[in-house]
Amino acid sequence: MTSSPEAEASGRSAANSVRRALKRAVNETSRDVGGATVLLSARGTDLADLRQHRWTGQGHSPGGRPPAGRDDVLPQGLHATDVPPTTAPSEQPLPGTPPLDVSGQVVAVLGGTGPQGRGLAYRLALAGQQVTIGSRTTERAEAAAAELGLGITGFDNARAARGADIAIVTVPWEGHAATLAALRGELAGKLVIDSVNPLGFDAKGAYGIRPQEGSAAEQAAALLPDSRVTAAFHHLSAVLLTDPAIETIDTDVLVLGDTRSDTDIVRALTARIPGLRGVYAGRLRNAHQVEALVANLISVNRRYKAHAGLRITDI
Ligand SMILES: NC(=O)c1ccc[n+]([C@@H]2O[C@H](COP(=O)([O-])OP(=O)(O)OC[C@H]3O[C@@H](n4cnc5c(N)ncnc54)[C@H](OP(=O)(O)O)[C@@H]3O)[C@@H](O)[C@H]2O)c1
């Protein structure tokens, strides 16, 4: 079926007005940070959902479509199905990203018996990565590994670290220094990804703590001088990671580190989890505000009953 040039022009104009409205919506919900923009996103709040928010003023609906009967608030002549599809940010390779195959790397998740560690272990193993869970006791590690399946194994933290190429640190801040100090030998030469958020909680909610070294990541670098320390995964919700009903997690992961080849490996590992995009976000000396930003996300989650993530726009 063909359409007249007038009809096509009218469709294009309507589509352009939706694009402009979307751009306004994005600008209204984002904060400028030196040219790039940090877009706080509740789960699934990509552009498709922002469209829906403008249509309904409400939250999500299955399939990301406006409910029937709400076409009346669209520009005249434009129906929900006419809105041009968008490409998810995670499907677009960042400029200058080298193709890196990290599928053969063994990943140990230290403190992997908690929700965050389990979630990361589950997602990475699901993607085909060989994963080991570490714990202070072999029994707890084995139990968590058996529960998750997917070929995941469980050992004490030292043995897990020794057998890994990459170690992700998911212990609580309170146990961070002692855990890493004890693993200096086992982690020598390894790529370490610190995901720990030093946080305090009081009657007013969560707040970021500034460690003496500047950040948890810098404390890790100080305690592990023979390792390649990076930081990432601070803003990933354990609830989303551990929910097997969720196939894609809609968020960017800020990756920090002082060596480009290492942050590229972390970004490649991140990209193995559907929906995630690893974005280089600076050197370790800038890790504190990234770690502390979780306090803001906790406030977002409480206010909006969400599992918020982040998107960096314009890249
Ligand atoms: N939960 C989230 O949504 C989330 C999101 C992003 C980042 N994070 C960060 O990820 C880390 C882990 O979070 P989580 O909620 O999974 O924590 P968690 O459940 O409190 O702790 C994780 C595991 O660490 C071990 N552990 C507990 N206390 C320890 C100590 N004093 N020393 C050494 N190991 C200890 C425990 O394993 P064993 O008893 O088996 O050793 C525990 O299962 C935190 O630093 C958090 O800031 C969490």
TrEMBL record:
GO cellular component, one term: plasma membrane
Annotated spans, Disordered: 1-37, 54-101
Record domain Pyrroline-5-carboxylate reductase catalytic N-terminal: where: 107-198
Protein name: NADPH-dependent F420 reductase
A family per Pfam: F420_oxidored
Highest taxon of the lineage: Bacteria
Xref: InterPro entries: NAD(P)-bd_dom_sf, NpdG, P5C_Rdtase_cat_N, STEAP_metalloreductase
Keywords: Oxidoreductase
NCBIfam families per UniProt: npdG
GO terms under biological process: copper ion import; NADPH regeneration
GO MF annotations in UniProt: coenzyme F420 binding; cupric reductase (NADH) activity; ferric-chelate reductase (NADPH) activity; NADP binding; oxidoreductase activity, acting on NAD(P)H
Lineage summary: Bacteria, Bacillati, Actinomycetota, Actinomycetes, Kitasatosporales
Originating species: Streptomyces fagopyri
Recorded name of the encoding gene: npdG
UniProt KW Oxidoreductase keyword: yes
